[in-house]
Specification:
By secondary structure, this protein is α/β, with parallel strands linked by helices. Helix content is 41%, strand content 12%. α4 (68-75) crosses α5 (79-91) and α13 packs parallel to α16 (470-485). Bound molecules: pyridoxal-5'-phosphate.
């Protein structure tokens, strides 16, 4: 039981002793337990619980964790499972592993990101940022944004500076309805659009509304975008469904027991497949037969380089699918602007959830985005970024082909990263070791372990090109091939 659940189950008294037990310089007997009936794998639970303990400050910098053998014995799990969890946390910069010594926590609470934040390696250790799904924020259209803000401030009546509609600015909701219909084939009416503080808030809201409507089990792609805390807090349990080159293996939904599904059809995150037409049809049929709901994360659909992007799934079943978009990839994550298009039946539950926790993003920024869209500046920015990302992607593919011709690259010509399959003999620990070796040389990226504890098949690296120049790409691929030449790489024990 984790600290949060323990608190809910027993109140503050017990949690205090739980925390006291953890707040030692040597945690030789960690008060952790794993739920064998949960959909989440034991390895993923273990990694998550350790991470929560570090982030909450319960396991402080300098604390030594039990040896892999001792913890495996205590929890009644296999030793490789603990080895993998430790290796993953080491690759992410939380633990130091040294042969013959017990793993040590090397971050403290203040430097460990909160549970809803991205795992960010220390900024000064990163010289080349190849993390996936990171846009080039240096290209943020500052001038166009300033113009848009000025226009909004010149025209916004004082009456619009009070508390407004919780669903968001009517001006932006109208602009989004037109834009999403035109560009993504989304069937959108402003009354069914909610402006949210990024996709993160949109997903939290959607999961809470799914739960309120009676759903208890959420099918999720495996591997998948891994920020799960708000999903877990909603009360939904997660059922992992495998993915392949054509996106989610939707046939596995039958008999899964899920009443809702979270899917990235335009560009599966992180593997990179596009959900095939047959699977789209199957999924929509399943939603109707099962009276189920879907959340479609359309996070980077604007960036497709070889053809026009496939339209949103929502267009096939607007009464069943919550469509989610974000400005985090097209403009910048710092804006914290996202949007949902919600089936008519869900507008009421969404509003009710929203009232419980949010006042929505700032009105002036919302209207500035509407102005950017309406003036054509948003489309111009997208065209500019598409060209830039396409060129970087092609450059990265060329360099990978030259330096690592035996390794397969997966995924559609889309988005902000490519998926590189690692050699057959690299296991989860090896993948973590490669990431750690890259980080030691100043390169930050992520591997399959960050997004799945259970996915079968080859280990993978996700190489982002959103934030790296062509010369940075040259350098990165050279270093990566040097590191891979040092194989076979196995995890720490
Ligand atoms: C798969 C996926 N969906 C959505 C998002 C956007 O999240 P937000 O709008 O909260 O920044 C991200 C950001 O990294 C992502 O990787």
């Amino acid at each position: 039981m984790d600290a949060h659940r323990l608190y809910r189950a027993t109140g503050p008294k017990k949690i205090t002793s739980f925390r006291r037990k953890l707040l030692t310089s040597s945690a030789s007997d960690l008060p952790l337990s794993l739920d064998r009936d949960a959909a989440e794998s034991l390895g993923s639970q273990l990694r998550r619980r350790l991470l929560e303990a570090i982030r909450s400050g319960a396991l402080r910098r300098g604390v030594r964790l039990p040896s892999t053998r001792a913890l495996a014995g205590q929890l009644g799990v296999s030793r490789p499972l603990v080895v993998d969890a430790y290796a993953q946390l080491a690759a992410e910069g939380y633990l130091a592993l040294r042969q013959g010594a017990r793993p040590m926590v090397i971050v403290d609470r203040s430097s460990a990101p909160g549970p809803d934040a991205q795992d960010v390696p220390a900024a000064d250790s990163i010289r080349f940022d190849l993390r996936p799904a990171m846009p080039d924020v240096g290209m943020f259209p500052r001038k166009a944004w300033m113009r848009a803000i000025r226009t909004v401030l010149n025209n916004l009546p004082a009456s619009d500076l009070g508390y407004g509609d919780l669903r968001g600015s009517p001006v932006l909701r109208r602009a989004l309805a037109d834009y999403l219909g035109r560009v993504r084939g989304v069937i959108a009416d402003p009354s069914r659009i909610f402006v949210t503080s990024g996709f993160a808030e949109g997903r939290a809201l959607t999961c809470a509304a799914f739960y309120a409507r009676g759903a208890r089990r959420l099918a999720v792609e495996d591997p998948s975008y891994s920020e799960w805390s708000s999903v877990d807090r909603s009360g939904l349990s997660r059922l992992p469904i495998p993915v392949d080159a054509h996106g989610m293996r939707v046939e596995a939904l039958a008999g899964s027991g899920a009443e809702a599904v979270f899917v990235t059809p335009s560009h599966q995150f992180p593997i990179g497949g596009v959900l095939s037409a047959e699977r789209r049809q199957y999924l929509v049929r399943w939603l109707r037969e099962r009276d189920a709901l879907a959340l479609e994360d359309d996070y980077d659909a604007e960036f497709r380089y070889d053809q026009a992007p496939v339209g949103a799934l929502q267009g096939l079943a607007p009464d069943r699918i919550v469509y989610a978009g974000t400005a985090s990839k097209t403009l910048a994550p710092a804006l914290r602007l996202g949007w949902l298009v919600v089936p008519p039946d869900l507008v009421g539950p969404m509003n009710a959830e929203l009232r419980r926790w949010s006042e929505g993003p700032p009105r002036i920024d919302q209207d500035a985005l509407a102005e950017l869209i309406g003036s054509g500046a948003y489309d111009r920015q997208l065209r500019r970024m598409r060209r830039l990302y396409r060129d970087r992607r092609n450059h990265l593919l060329t360099r990978l082909r030259e330096a690592l011709p035996g390794l397969k690259v997966e995924g559609a010509a889309a988005g902000l990263h490519v998926t590189l399959q690692l050699p057959q003999d690299v296991d989860a620990g090896g993948e973590a070791a490669i990431l750690a070796a890259l980080l030691r040389r100043g390169f930050a990226t992520e591997g399959l372990g960050r997004y799945s504890a259970t996915a079968a098949g080859p280990r993978r690296l996700f190489l982002g090109y959103g934030r790296i120049s062509e010369s940075g790409i040259d350098h990165s691929v050279r270093i990566l091939s040097e590191i891979l030449a040092g194989r076979p790489m196995r995890g720490a024990s």
